[in-house]
Amino acid sequence: MIGFVGVGVMGEPICRHVASKSGKEVRAYDLASAPLARLAAHGVKAAASVQEIAEHSEVVYLSLPGELEVKEVCVGRGSLLMHMRPASYILDLSTVPMALARELESRFAARGIHYIDAPVARTRAAAEAGTLSVMVGCAEALFARVKPWLEYFATEVTRCGPAGAGQALKLINNMVLFQSVAALAEALALIRRLDLDPAKALAVLSKGSADSFALRNHAMKAMLPNEFPERAFSVEYALKDLGYALGLARTAGVELTGLKSAKTLLEKAAAAGHGGEYFPVIAKVV
């Protein structure tokens, strides 16, 4: 059996892909009942607890908001560490600090359980389409085993190095993204102040060296139409990941001045009441 803990914005479509492609019974646990009800139409059974997932699953996927939730599910009361069997697998799709991923890998390994950090990148639309990118941190021998389980919902599955490496590169990925989106928010503010056509301006930028994933997605699809839905990667989530990245940089002794500038914009957006909205909403506060 396959277990899935956390079926929120990204977890729900990922779980749906796992259920439709794995050929296995899938049980999911979440504090919210609505996504579990939707997943039931795809054959996913609702579990009563994390313990139920742990006791019956050979493979467990986690898609949780952050560090606190991952700790609680993995090592709290009724946790995976207490109830999973040796030789089982945990694929953690959440974004958490690299140090936590390494700590969990060590603690689970002591009980013969394989914990693999496998955070996902790209958008909610990519999760729906099954075209995510997964950054994996694990021993090379384990990677061949787990890669097919990640390909249920991803077109790019890359081993980044040993335990924690997947989380490190996911945080660096987000670090670059946040700064790119901040630069695009400033560019749009200047474009509008100069009375240039924003749509035409972005199209022109996409044909030059300013082109990027952020321009084609966050700028063209969110900032340009001024659409910042709440069931997306919010300002609050962005600030969480940004904090993890700054912590990683402190550990490495690197000063990230550009990321701190992006942090200022995100904090300004949160203070203006946009904390729950899709994070390119920072364009409203430039």
Can you tell me about this structure?
Helices cover 53% and strands 13% of the residues. With 286 residues, it is an alpha/beta fold. It has two domains: 2-162, Rossmann fold (3-Layer(aba) Sandwich); 168-285, N-(1-d-carboxylethyl)-l-norvaline Dehydrogenase, domain 2. The strands form two sheets. The chain has a six-stranded parallel β-sheet, with helices on both faces. A three-stranded mixed β-sheet has the order 7-8-9. Strand 8, helix 8 and strand 9 (154-161) form a beta-alpha-beta unit. Helix 9 crosses helix 12. The radius of gyration is 20 Å and the shape is globular. The mean pLDDT is 97.
Task: List segments where confidence is low: pLDDT < 50 over at least 5 consecutive residues.
Answer: none
Tell me the helix content: 40-55%
Number of domains: 2
Radius of gyration, whole Å = 20 Å
Number of helical segments?
13
CATH architecture of the largest domain: 3-Layer(aba) Sandwich
Read across the widest sheet, the strand sequence of neighbours is 3-2-1-4-5-6
Reading the helices and strands in chain order gives EHEHEHEHHEHEEHEHEHHHHH
Bin the strand percentage: 5-15%
Q: Please identify the structural class as seen in this structure.
A: alpha/beta
The gross shape turns out to be globular
> Which whole number gives the mean pLDDT?
97
